[in-house]
Amino acid sequence: MIMLSPLFGIVAFAVLSGLYLIRCLLSPLNRIPGPALAKYTSWVLKWHELNANRTKYIHSLHLKYGPVVRIAPNEVAFASQGAVKEIYCSAGSGYDKTEFYDLFMVYGRRTMFTTLNKDDHARRKRILADRYANSNVVRQPSLSGIAERANSFAQICAQSVGGSLDLFVILHAYAFDCVTHHLFHPYGANSLYSTSSDEEIMKEVYKDRLIQYYSPTLHKLIAKVLYPFAKPRETPLADRFVLEASAQQGVAPFTLVSRLHEKSSTLDSLDIAAECLDHMAAGIDTTGDGLCFLMWELSQPRSFRFQQRLQQELLEASPETAFDKLPFLDAVVMEGLRCFPAIPMSLPRYVPQGGREIDGFFVPERAIVSCQAYSVHRIDQAVFPQPDLFNPERWLEEDGDAQRRRLMFAFANGGRGCVGKHLALAEMKLLLREVYSRFITLPDPSMTAEMMEMSDQLISSRPLAARCLLRFSPIAKKG
Ligand code: HEM
Hints:
Strand content: 5-15%
Radius of gyration: 24 Å
Number of domains: 1
CATH class: Mainly Alpha
Keywords: Heme, Iron, Metal-binding
GO molecular function, one term: monooxygenase activity
Distance between the termini: 96 Å
Shape: globular
Cofactor: heme
CATH architecture: Orthogonal Bundle
Strand order of the largest sheet: 1-2-7-4
Bound molecules: protoporphyrin IX containing FE
Binding site for heme: 418
Structural class: alpha+beta
């Protein structure tokens, strides 16, 4: 009965609050710089997350407090090369992932991306890594499939001459077609040319994941009800597409699904579909938004000379020159990924048992630590002077090249870094080569800088307006 009295409630609340306060005041993280409130609550951080602004908020803290910042009672953000090495590369694949990654579980199964600990991850990676090796990506017919799609993209640009084109949508379509080519050929999508279900699937994947982020509790609740039936959740068209495509026989040997079928003694059909859906989602927003921000920047008057230099390199190169042997194209892509990393935000990990010293600070076990590419690419101004300036030429300087590459974190680092990196780079370079050897791009007058502000999504970032209108005009032929 006493437990029901208001006095008991008040006393219990006071005791629990007192204990919480003592815990906060004794935390070994108190030596780490950061806003005072972060010692007691994670609500400020959550507020910024809900406003799609976590990345910029954390970056502002780095600018104020330095490369090590406490951002919540149990969470610390780092931005140095030493921290990247320790958190993401120590013992090969770095520290274990946090439960944040449960949000990406598909059909109730863990995929390579969602495995939390090293051993589970290594087992899955051993199975499929060879399909993403550069040697597999750049051989035929893997590469010609991407080249064909880049060519289709340029034809769509040509049709838009005299008007404008929404790059945001069409680049997602390109990335969707390319990644599904690599996963399922000949059963990949053709959304660049279809107006129907393929386009809907692609939109579904890049839109609806947001629901999981903003309402994780609701999402978990729904997911729990559906998992036992392995039913599609918020992305029914995408789920159906992947379930069907991943069950097809007669797929090309370079595809991911051909490799997963070889392992059907250890992976059932739902594991295979889950792995494929995960890679499909991982390959759409990232490549699509990365290219979108980059082409927008190249179209600005401030960057126009870089667009011209790129066009010059592309027009002077012989058609036989491989896409990865064009130094200025490479510099443009590197600088694009540095300034506008498609995954600019924190990649959270747990500090292992016994705690670890990171960047000169002891961090106890189970604290959440992370680096975010947006800050890693900007904080060290000795390596990246004028860090907010888009300047591809910095990648052509021999001096400091090794340091710059060491600080590139767009694809993360270590054993859990992006497995699709070579595929993504091929997609980006082939598309830019097609476009900028044929067209000059300019922003549509209706677009504003604000519309292209970075807006955080679940695990990638997109332009705020989810729209990016550019105008294409053909390059005048000489002579
Ligand atoms: C510009 C394009 C891309 C960027 C910037 C990018 C970036 C990243 C980053 C930062 C991670 C680590 C995420 C984390 O630890 O939370 C990652 C992981 C991953 N990415 Fe990408 N990615 C891109 C394109 C792709 C593509 C095209 C695929 C195609 C399949 C892909 C598949 C994956 C997978 C499967 C993982 C999980 C790897 C693992 O856990 O071992 N990504 N990517």
